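Notebook entry, structure prediction.
Reason for the run: the old model in the group folder had no record of what sequence produced it. Starting over properly, with the input documented here first.
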Amino acid sequence: MAALIGGAAVVGVWLSRYAIAVHRLTRGIGDTMFYGADGQPWFRLDEQRHDVSLAEIAPDLQHAVVAVEDRRFYLHPGIDPIGVGRAVVRDLRGGGRVEGGSTLTQQLARTLFLSNVRTFGRKIKEGGIALLIEAQLSKRQILEFYLNRIYLSAGVYGVETMSEHLFRKPASAVTLPEAAFMAGLIRAPSALSPWSNYDGALERSHLVLATMRERREKSSAMKARWAALKDRVAEINVSTIDASPPKS
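New structure, fully documented this time:
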């Protein structure tokens, strides 16, 4: 009995600590700025990340990320039982490796509060924090935070900064193939870095577009747009990508 009470107390303290941290997220996104003596902005704390509102991120980019990373994002409460079940099967077949099954909300929880160490303990914490996030933020707020905080390669966080580095344009102006290209980097940002593995990143974008196409063709309103692609699942002009990776 004492052990149960002690365990419950530890869990309660842990949840309350993260609940406070999650509540701070309700303030919304925003860069940390340093100001000069004249009151004018001087520089951002993190030059490799620039926050923008969800309205300033192309809908195609939003849809691409949800389609390839968490297709049931708008249906689950932070944890996707179907995804968890599939991940458990893969883990068992893979000899107990802990991988997969994370929703966008769980990925955000890991990015903001945890490490990338693959353990069952981290997965449990990740799920708990994800439920706290879903309880206090709307789906739009969660997606906005995710797109501004996700690591995309070469020290770059967030779609706005990555879009500027890759295509020399804001995230609001990316095309559908460009959106798929960026969304494809999320799963393996180091291995698929466009500055060291362009072919791999492009191949991944094919999968993203194919996944989007499969989902959207169920809507008659989108069939005409997809038909216009004529089965070309990627048409990114290599010359539009900045060949120099961002400076750390």
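Summary: Confidence is low (pLDDT under 50) at residues 230-235.
The old model has been moved to the deprecated folder.
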